[in-house]
Amino acid sequence: MTDTKSAVLSAADALVGAFSRHDRAAYFEAFAPEATFLFYNLDRTLADRAAYEAEWALWEERDGFRVLGCRSTDRKVQLVGDVAIFTHAVETDVSVGGETVTNNERETIVFARNNAGRWLAVHEHLSAAA
């Protein structure tokens, strides 16, 4: 494995780990401010990180949303210059309205290396697993 792929996987691990712990600050820190988000369970694309942070806060307040755990498998990295495409299968345990639900999904996260050399997520696309 190349050093670049290892760095991208490390960035993905940090993002998924923060999500798994419901660590909002660390999770959103893994995204560039201009990142976009496309989720199958939303009726619109979220145009930037601030929009996703507002949506997350709404889920917490309105629905009692809480991530209880997350497992990432079938991980792949495709490098295209200073862009990396990370795909994986993700199984997430969440609490919504006091009920625990397990979601099985597929996810693509596009990372870009910023001027400081840090890999930040610039796009996330989440789909329900078939």
Q: Would you kindly provide a written description of the structure presented here, covering whatever features stand out?
A:
The model has no long low-confidence stretch (mean pLDDT 97). This protein is an alpha+beta fold and 130 residues long. It has helices at 3-20, 24-29, 49-63; strands at residues 31-39, 66-80, 83-96, 99-113, 119-128. Helix content is 30%, strand content 48%. It has a five-stranded mixed beta sheet. It is globular, with a radius of gyration of 14 Å.
SSE order? HHEHEEEE
Report how far apart the termini are.
30 Å
Structural class: alpha+beta
Please give the largest β-sheet: 5 strands, mixed
Q: Percent helix among the residues? A: 25-40%
Global outline: globular
Based on DSSP secondary structure assignment, what is the total number of beta strands?
Answer: 5
β-strand amount? over 45%
Q: Radius of gyration in whole Å, from Cα? A: 14 Å
The chain-level mean pLDDT equals 97
- Strand order in space, largest sheet: 1-5-4-3-2
Give the low-confidence spans: none
Q: How large is the count of helical segments?
A: 3
